[in-house]
Design goal:
globular, BirA Bifunctional Protein, domain 2, Rossmann fold, about 600 residues
Amino acid sequence: MEKEQLEAMRHSCEHALTMAMMRLWPGKIKAAMGPATDDGFYFDFDSEVKISEADFDKIEKEMAKIIKDNLPMIKDEMTVAEAREFFSRNTYEGNEYKHEWLDEIEGRGEKVSVYWMGEKGGDMPNTFVDICSGPHVESTGKIGAFKLLKVAGAYWHGDEKNKMLQRVYGTAFATQEDLDKYLTMMEEAKNRDHRKLGVELDLFTFSDLVGPGLALWTPKGTLLRNTLDEYVWQLRKERGYTKVTIPHITKKALYEKSGHWDKFATELFHITTREGHEFAMKPMNCPHHTQIYDHVRRSYRELPQRYAETTMVYRDEQTGELSGLSRVRCITQDDAHVFLRESQVKEEIFKIWDIIEIFYKATGFGKMRVRLSFHDPDHFEKYLGEKEVWERTENQLRELAQERGVEVFEAKGEAAMYGPKVDFIAVDSIGREWQVATVQLDRNLPERFDLNCINEKGEQERIVMLHAAIMGSIERFLSILIEHHAGAFPVWMAPVQIQLVPVSAKHVEGAKNLLTELVELGIRVDIDEADETVGNKVRKAVGQKIPYIVVVGDKELAGEDWMIRVRGQENQEKMKKEEFVEKVLDETRERK
């Protein structure tokens, strides 16, 4: 089914949910708001009744009746005054949420779009109407197979200063078979949830004292982050990149000049100095990097200038939208910017493309989909620059993708505010798609910052800028990676590659000597010195998903062959210590 049709079905199912809730608990439910999402829908309710998953059976039965009745979905328009009067009576009396939406619509000078479910002008329980711009299916009979999934608390508008509402999540698909596949995937996703595995594997934690959306990384988690980041840097260094370093705050003026202040002022952490100067915590790095490029006069012979930096940026995300590592307030970016001439664009984009393909193969992802993320011509006010420049730049990306020989799809409205992008979509081990790496071709920031080089004729020549992120947000990438591998990382990136398990206290000292020897060779090793049975120690190491476990007893310390417990294998492998060490080193070098 086409994405647009699926969205319309889910949006309509969300209305069926709301109608069912208001039928079941008349006068006790205020319908707030809810959208269709990428994989379903949700709706927020201000309810006198505590809704739980135990109520899902009766809610779903009521929804099924609404769907069976094949009620028409009818679009209508009202003036703001008509809507205020309408949403002040009957089942909507006292619903402040609808009036807040009407205030916003009035502020935009628009009419109010509503959808009727059932007879236009009718009343509950046979008819339901809500403020909505659509899209919807023609009638409820077109909704298909659906399922309610969970209930959660959600602040109105995601702001913890507002009232906590009850959010009911659900999903819908064209067929029961598609729904069953999705539910199976969701069950597997629960087992792979990075928030659960992150705690079990001791990779990261959050603290109420530090604040929501601010991850704290343990030694193991930091090892994992650094191993991945060092590999990205190795790939970049081989292609001529150099490292730069910038501060974490900036004057307001920098983001006013770049255009970010006008577009993203509400997402910035604002700082006012004792002298009254206004600063911001940086939400991105590109404006700072322009100032490194522009601090000296540049000859064309010096281009491209390739700057790389792994650094943290900060965005004032709403508390209700935060989710594990997937959405945080402190974001670590493996960021890079290339300042180059027009004639160098293809070569430099292909270098970045090479890095992305090599890195994602090593991290265990197969062939990725490629999306060309372009501007939305109906809302050009969201973007910087001129339409002609955008169209020329987007055509250039189309041509480069064609020359690269890859199949692409285009997405309007997914561009960055300053330029179109080549986005890479990874598919994880349970079939979910994630946008990961990105390359952005930008002719607008060089214009705004007046970035030039001196060309062969001694004239100033306007340059071009590339923005490139391989992992992007390292936090978000690790949430994807953890779930993709279910915490069982390939040997080369595993925080602990070998777990040594001494048989008894008398073997601990010898095991420590082995640990020192292996660490000096560059292998990541841990030792369990607990006064427990070997069986308990092995079970703990298995639970930590460590690739190799070696029980260290008299024979191992005497130089005899080692028995290696290999993750995911029932039978142990027997080999000489030197052979095993070379195997681990080879897997690390070859990134296996």
